[in-house]
Amino acid sequence: MIEEEDAVEFIDIDILVNMVKMAFAMENWEEVISLSTRLLETAKVIASHPSKTSGERIETKRHISYYFGYSYLMQGLAFQKLKQYALSIECIEYYRDLSWLNDSTDEAITIVEDFNKFAKANLLTLDILTGNRNKLPEYTEFLQQNPDQILSGLITILESAILYSYNVDHVLEPLRSHIRDASFYTEQVLATKYLSYSFMLALYYSLNDHTQEAIIISLHNLSLCDKLGNDKYFKKTIALFETIKIYASVSQLEEYSRILKIIFEGEISNEKGHRFSRSFSSSHFQ
């Protein structure tokens, strides 16, 4: 007999997938792990009880194999972001070969093949993140063959280059040509990825004597963070700009001041009884 609690889980499984995606977009890695674990438990319940009653099938938007693979995939990605690479590899081993689910339907076989590809890509990603530069040509080739992975791949390459202090200029240019304008990345997960990439690129440039590029990207990021309402990267970008503003031109400092003035005016105007100080000027940021 299926418990009432299980019935609630049946309804919630696709909502759980969306919750995992939202937590990932917010870069709340601990929440991603927690929700992915709950998703896995829910998938197990559904797999154990394929119908609520003898004649009523449990409806899910995707094949049950997908939920098993997705739960391990997202846990692995969260552990990767937390730099807990051993745990990430453990998760990869689960979704690398989902044949243990013993489902020979065409849909299940396709899902197994898809997650096997994800596993190969993510193992290669871990090689890059742990500083294995010898894998960089192979990783670059993989990204060029899978353009939809280039945004995430650039974040990985930049993170590794910054952490292990090596130059990847020769890799960046061909891959960056695939990146679309920021207006293309409006979906929340993609928007966060774009901000992460853009911030990492500015940081990389600031550390590799491309200060003007870092300044230009940072100014662009500030406006974009405000538009997207992303406080995390707004604060990180301000912190970065403050370290390199001594290299900024007068016009760039004025642009910095103008952006902040517009943003802070909007914030303060929402507070009852406050008026934005007219003394706010570019001299405060020089």
From TrEMBL:
This is DNA-binding protein. It comes from Paenibacillus chibensis.
